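hey team, just a heads up i'm posting the complex here instead of the shared drive bc the drive is being weird again. everything in one block, sequence lines first with there labels, then the predicted structure for the whole assembly after. its two chains so it's a bit long, scroll down
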Amino acid sequence: MNGQDLVSRMKRLSQVTDIKEVTQLSSAIFPGPHCPLMGAMMAVRGIKDSVLLVVGTDECTYYTKNTTISGSSFGGLDGRCLSVVLDSHDVTFGCREKLYRAFAELMEEYAPKAVFVVTTCVVEVIGDDVDSMAQQLGEQYGIPVMAVHTEHFKTENHLPGVQDTITACFAMMRPQPVGQTVNVIGQRLGDFTTTELYRVLQQAGVPMGMMLPSGTTVAEIERAAAARVNLVVNPIGLPLAKKMQRAFGTPYVLFDKYIDPARIYRLYAQLFGYLQLPLPAEVEDLYRQACRAVAGASAHLAGVTYIYGNTPVECFELNAFMVKLGMRPLLIQTSAIPGEEDPARQTILKQCDPYVTKTANIAPLQYVYDVLQPHLYLGHEYAERLRKKKIEIAHTDVLSPMLGLEVTIAGVQQLIDASTAARQLREGRAAV
Amino acid sequence: MSLCRYLPVPSDRMAVMWTLLTVGDAVVLEYGPAGTTHYCVSLFGAMGISPDQSLFTTHMSEDDVIMGDVRRLEEAIVELDKGYRPKVIFVIASAVTAVIGTDLVGVCNYMQQQVDARLIALENGGFKGDYTVGLRQVYRLLVKQLAGQKQGLLPGRYNVLGASASSYRIRSDLREIEDLLSRSFGLSRHTALGVDTSLQQLAAMGGAQLNIVLRAEALPAAEWLKQQFGTPYVYGVPYGYQGTEQWLEQIASVLGRPAARSVRDQLGQRQSQAATFRMYATMYRNRPHPPAAAIIGDYDLLQGLAGLCRELDICPDLLICPHTLRDITDCDPIVRHFATEKEQITALRQLQYHLVFGDDVSLHLCDRTNTGLCVSFPLVSHVQIAEHLPLMGIRGTDYILETIDRYYQVLE
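-- predicted structure starts here --
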């Protein structure tokens, strides 16, 4: 492929205000984004006593089950990821009969506390009314049965699947007297109990409530309205948090995986304000550490160019942060474009105007590297292949299990390490 | 089938994909939502197939689905043709495009004028049947569309038809076949359709002296090659020492000359050594648990391993075929294809003191009184890396005998 042609096809950040305006790097893509079915699977994985029932083709059900077998979250091979496999008869006449038969077997053998009936593209195309089936099955068996729609042709990636699954949990919640607990909503990577934020809350004596979807039970979801505040650690948790605020008056704080220390500090203050507790001294200490890390970073990072692929950190916030440190994005791959008023967007555009394209299409990117020649690639790629092109990978997966100021401290160090390695690579260090 | 607790039987579309991805110099373009493409990568990786730079998807939007807009597909075809210069682009349907009735053949027909690559459409959306339906279709399609004209004779060369990346240890088995045919007849392999081939090899395959057919699904392709080029074929799989000997005799009969003496002697010697196992079978026959085997896998594997068991006087009393038997001619009545997963689970859970040859899921369902060996996909508790551990031929039987020896050690 001609890299120059690919680059000329892309728009710049200043030219777009919505992801629909962003041109795909190529029409033929690989591997492409994950689908909402996978997102739904990721969400149900954390709800321990529930069952995931996928309704779809052999292929969709095969790959989903296959993904859940490794690890213990779903219970391995005998675990709680089940399916109803549709054939041409079901496509013609609907899946109702088969779904009901399968559900009876499911209840007899697994006795779950709740079931998520997850549709796939074909079910949505044929227009089966799975919502009414789920409602009827729930009434028949006396357990919560939630329909989650995961047609991929309506979404950019898998995140709507996570969002819709956790939002569907609202149906299980019941009014409760408010206590002192904090719910954690929207954590899709890592374990909240290993984060700085968890440690700070524990040391302040704040008990945890529902942690959806990182690890919870149906009983905890039912009691979720008892929380003093909802901690939303990813925007996918916002629809549920807003519903809970309307229904039960539970306030929420959007505490995403941010990297700007001032922002994180403000969120800590907001959270402890809702809890009516003083801000712990540890937060002040961590904030000072993070500020020192940032202050010393520019000397290492100024002038370093990069292509942004995918990281656990909020995309545009991280890019704005790096721009403030003197780094220069040449291309940002993203699945969402912030509006013109967004401060992160404005920060980036004050300094530069990077190309933007959609994520998960690494095949044609190989040809773009030769044209843009960045120092760094942030995200998942083949490291050896990149190093041959004198590009270093910044490993940001280490940030996945983090929340709080630890993201700043570790993130800055990762950027410094990768930038140092990139400079050495350009100066002739042998590819490792 | 109603509730599926484990892995469903792969569909025709999945088989079409994993077969076409093994054709070098060609690319595969899926017209459908991208998630399926991303999801399939791990399965293909387990089969030893790398889709990097050979598999692409268009993705689809809601507008494309509602309006039947195929511009995205047209652009992708042109782009792949210009950007990657493949000789062939296989354009494959998805479940969605199959349901909405996208005319892929029609699109490929009019787009053919705009590109250099040859466009071949496959409208499998996963609703035509299981993977054997897909294999049967794609083997036939590859030879009919790409075997081309006879370019010249390839004396001493043979093609393997019906090898599939979905057959456990197939690359090891191909090496064993290569070794056996080289030592027995001085033959060497031209191409292995379905695992390791290229467009150039396909184009020249009509010149081969012989076609070796490893599974029933490749018989229509073999028949077509016979009619088109006069290439004889031998259908059979070399499992067990006797089975391998008979297989070589079949080939010898077609070639009109016997297998090399050294190979026949080696097989005779091995059969003598295996007499110990027949003696064990006699000894255990009147004990509480007489030797018995259960086999789970593709039809030809079932037949081959059942033959191996009979060779050693072990009774294969449960043969389970996960795929449809509809297209099998003269199907062995002992072979069972369960209508529901539940029936199959029940049958496997009831097994006791059996030698079990099967896939990881089936072996998982058998209790500890049984002695198991993985011989087929799906793999869920281990990976396939080695390419020197066959199940077929002399080395394959040597290896399987080690499991049978273990079986007798625990049999009460």
